[in-house]
Amino acid sequence: MPYKFLDIIAADIAVEVKASSLEKVFSDSGIAVAATQFKNFKSIKPEIQKKISLRAENIEELFFKFLDELVFIKDTDNIILVKFDKIKIYKKGNLHALECLASGDKLDLKKHGNIVDIKAITMHMFEIKKKKSEWYAKFVLDV
């Protein structure tokens, strides 16, 4: 797996992701957000597409907004996003931008088997940075 769960927070879930590119660390983190919540993660089919467009002052804020958007879409549209294609991260003027075509499935607790419900992404231990030749991210999910 490209991500792992860290056993360092009692009430929340800490996630660490390592990837070869910035786009891949975003994608793998998105997968981790979905996998955290559902027992039958593999039953989630990427049949519904959502376009995600975000802007932020820096990569850290952009990453936070991306993860937060996944929770928001789950809570408002009842869609679990599990596939992130065509992620493009670039500078637009003074801002960092993200364009992504994400795919997922309608939330069905009987089919997907809910484990926990993510309430929010927290800033506790939050980081994303390049370490030598790979990207590294760590974040905590408030459940």
Radius of gyration: 14 Å
CATH architecture classification: 3-Layer(bab) Sandwich
Could you estimate the helical fraction of the residues in percent?
Answer: 25-40%
* Number of separate domains: 1
The CATH homology group name: Archease domain
Principal-axes geometry comes out as globular
| Sequence stretches where pLDDT stays below 50 over 5 or more residues | none
CATH topology: Archease, Possible Chaperone, Chain: A, domain 1
What is the CA-CA span between the terminal residues? Answer: 22 Å
Q: Determine the structural class based on helices, strands and strand pairing.
A: alpha+beta
What percentage of the residues does DSSP assign to strands (E)? over 45%
- Return the string of H and E elements: EEHEHEEHEE
Number of strands: 7
Query: How many separate helices?
Result: 3
CATH class membership? Alpha Beta
Describe the sheet with the most strands.
4 strands, antiparallel
Main-sheet strand order equals 1-2-7-6
User: Overall mean pLDDT score?
Assistant: 90
